[in-house]
Structure formats: C-alpha cells, structure tokens
Automatic annotation (TrEMBL):
Name of the molecule in the record: Alpha/beta hydrolase fold-3 domain-containing protein
Listed InterPro entries: AB_hydrolase_3, AB_hydrolase_fold, Carboxylest/Gibb_receptor
Family annotation (Gene3D superfamilies): alpha/beta hydrolase
Alpha/beta hydrolase fold-3 domain ranges (all copies): 71-292
Stated family: Belongs to the 'GDXG' lipolytic enzyme family.
Pfam families registered for this protein in UniProt: Abhydrolase_3
GO molecular function: carboxylic ester hydrolase activity
Highest taxon of the lineage: Eukaryota
Length: 320
C-alpha cells in the first residue's frame, strides 16, 4: 500500500500518492436498530442508488400521533468527515426525535476530497426531493408516508450542515418546493470569506488562512473565487436572502466559535433582507463550535437542546 503522503489536512485526514484518503476522525459507525433504543427506532434507506447514498430514519417507538413533525438533518464535519451513522449524530438525532416526538431523516452526502463541492449540495437537494416525493403519501418509504406531516417540515444542521441548510432553503424557494418548509435551524454555521464581516470577526491571518485552505484545497478546490464563493461567503456576498423558503429561522452561535460573527451577521442580513419570516438568535457566549455535540450533558448543551426541540414543536424554551 502506498505510504507517501501528498497532502495532510489536520485534524481531518491525509491524502496519499495513490489517491487513498485516510480520515483521522469521524469514521466510527453505529448501526440502525428496529429494536427501540431510548424509545426510538431507526433504519437506513437508499435514496440515491447511483451514488450508493442512504438516509437514516428515526421514529418514536411509542408515538400515539399518526402524523409527526418532520426534521431533515444535514450533518457537519467540514464537508470532509462524519455521517448520519456517526455516534455523535445518531445519538443526538435520537434524543431530538424522542423529545420532539418527530420523524427525522438524516442525510448522507458525498464528501470531499474524493467528491469536492458542489457534490454535497447536490446530494442534499436530491435527498430532499426524494423525501418530498412522499408528500402525497405514495412514496417508496412507509415511515415517511405514514408519519410525516408535510405541513411541519424543518431542515436543520450544524457547521457545514448549517451552511447547506441555508442553501437548501434558498433552493426550495427557487424551485418552488411544495409543501413549503416551515423552519430552518442554522447552528454554528460554517460561513466565511476573504475579508472579516466586521471589526469583531477573526482578524488573525493564520486562522483565516487555515480555514481558507480547508475550503480551497480540500473541500472546494474548483471554486473560482476561493473563499468568496457564494456557497461559503454567504454573509459577505451580494446574495439576496429575501426569498428564503421557510416561515421561521433559528440561528445559534457560540461566543468562542471562529464562526460566531458570521452567524450573527447572517441573522442581521436576513432580518434586513425583506424576508417576511421570523428570526430567532440563540447565543452561548462561553462555548465553542458545536459544543452541544461535543459535550451534550453540559448545562449549556441542555439549554440549547430545549431551544432546538421547542423550535420543532412550537412550544416554549422550557420544553423537556
């Protein structure tokens, strides 16, 4: 086996001379289970035979409701690591499904560097189209046909998944997805650009170049404008948010996250855009990037979890 390293993109992985990609984290997998775990059952269903891509479905085991809110989840991981089958995402979505009493569909997408952007975006949209093929109750997957309430559809994601959640909502409007999406949760979004969005944004040249390198050399080497690609530079670009295809948005940021000013800038841009929905911003000043996944038992993670569940159920922040 070829052992010469051509490129190293720590902490994510390495590329070898023979083209092999070694991921250093986010590779562990939990299998689905039709035996209830934490009162939730799960299974994997192929939505793209051409690319051998699946979604993982999560359903409350003892729900008495015939129709449930539908959460479409797009995982993070810098477009490079993790999957719906990773313990960190399987366990988190399980908890959300249990507490929100919802049906969740967690999307697998092709990852860089083997499949550079825009593959992840195209796959996510393909999965959403597949999910919405069930809106009239005649799709290929019985759980979605029987339990999904398409008047209560939410898209959510963290980091790279939050970035893609925004773009999926924009595309839903452009392509007139029907029924319309009710809400989108943008959690610690991976938005970036060549220049800081304000004087409080990251000024350190090494940090900025490090993030740019991941995008330009690994995730999206074909971007003509580098980090100013509108897919990445969502806040600083001249993109129009007024047509965002949902009724409400939850924007969550963490004070010690390098993306915090981008997230706050996103919420401000959305509010000024003429979009007619509701924007709610949640800030945890003393936490870092995706703290709620890294340390789910912390007090701040519990606080955000209640907010996220409440966003889906339409209840107050005191939901348990």
């Amino acid at each position: 086996m070829e052992t010469e390293i051509v490129s190293e993109f720590l902490p994510f992985g390495r590329i070898y001379k023979d083209g092999r990609v070694e991921r250093l984290t986010g590779t562990e997998i939990i299998p689905p289970s039709l035996d209830a775990r934490n009162d939730v059952v799960s299974k994997d269903v192929v939505y793209s035979p051409d690319h051998n891509l699946s979604v993982r479905l999560f359903l409350p085991h003892k729900s008495t409701d015939n129709k449930l809110p539908l959460l479409i989840y797009i995982h993070g991981g810098a477009w490079i690591i993790e999957s719906p089958f990773s313990p960190i995402y399987h366990n988190y979505v399980t908890e959300v499904v249990k507490s929100a009493n919802c049906l969740a569909v967690s999307i697998q997408y092709r990852r860089a560097p083997e499949h550079p952007i825009p593959a992840a975006y195209e796959d996510s949209w393909s999965a959403i189209q597949w999910i919405f093929s069930h809106a009239d109750g005649s799709g290929p997957e019985e759980w979605i046909n029987e339990h999904a309430d398409f008047n209560r559809v939410f898209i959510g994601g963290d980091s790279a998944g939050a970035n893609m959640s925004h773009h999926m909502a924009m595309r839903a409007s452009k392509e007139k997805l029907d029924p319309k999406i009710k809400g989108v949760a943008i959690v610690h979004p991976a938005f970036w650009g060549t220049d800081p969005v304000d004087e409080h944004d990251v000024q350190d040249a090494e940090t900025r170049s490090g993030i740019a390198e991941v995008w330009e050399k690994i995730a999206s080497p074909n971007s003509v404008n580098g980090t100013d690609d509108p897919l990445f530079n969502v806040v600083g670009s001249d993109s129009d948010f007024s047509g965002l295809g949902c009724e409400k948005v939850l924007v969550a940021v963490a004070g010690k996250d390098v993306f915090v000013r981008q997230g706050l800038g996103y919420a401000a841009k959305l509010e000024k855009s003429g979009w007619r929905g509701d924007v709610e911003v949640v800030v945890e000043e003393e936490e870092g990037h995706v703290f709620h996944l890294q340390n789910p038992d912390s007090e701040s993670a519990s606080r955000f979890f209640k907010k996220f569940v409440g966003f889906i159920t339409g209840s107050s922040t005191d939901v348990m």
